[in-house]
Amino acid sequence: MNGVPPAKKMDKKVIDTPEFEKYAEQNLILFLIDLPGGGLVINSKIFQDYEKFKNKYQSNALPSLILTENDGTKIKTLKGKMFALENVMKQLKSE
Description:
Blueprint: H1 5-15, H2 18-27, H3 45-57, E1 66-68, E2 74-77, H4 85-93
Antiparallel strand pairs: 1-2
């Protein structure tokens, strides 16, 4: 991902780790949304798409990990430290 520093931190400490990659390969279909590093331009296409996503999944925190069914129905949003692999894996495995 190319976006904001918190997303880069989550990538490095969670998404790009062998443990997460192995779990994701066996259990998840990943859909990653990245925002531009310079921020959102109000009324741009990216901003409009982000607003739709944010409203659909009731997510104001960035970065967020949201679990959905195949049809996009929200199961849950992972909470807490998205930069802590242990926190993320514990929540994923409890699903």
